[in-house]
Amino acid sequence: MRQIDSTSETRPAAITCRGLCVKYGDFVAVDDLSLEIRTGECFGLLGPNGAGKTTTVEAFEGLIRPAAGEIGILGCAWRTGVDRKLRQRIGVALQETRFSETLTVEETVRLFRSFYDRGRDVAEVIALLGFEEKRHARVGKLSGGQRQRLSLACALVSAPEILFLDEPTTGLDPQARLRIWEVIERFAGEGGTVLLTTHYMEEAARLCHRVAIMDRGKLVSLDSPEALVRELGACDVIELVPKGDADLEKFAAIAGVRRAQRRGPVITLAVDSVKATLPAALAAAEAWGVEIGSVATHRASLEDVFVHLTGRGLRDG
Question: Which of 13, 63, 68, 151 shows the greatest Cβ crowding within 10 Å of its Cβ?
Answer without folding.
Answer: 151
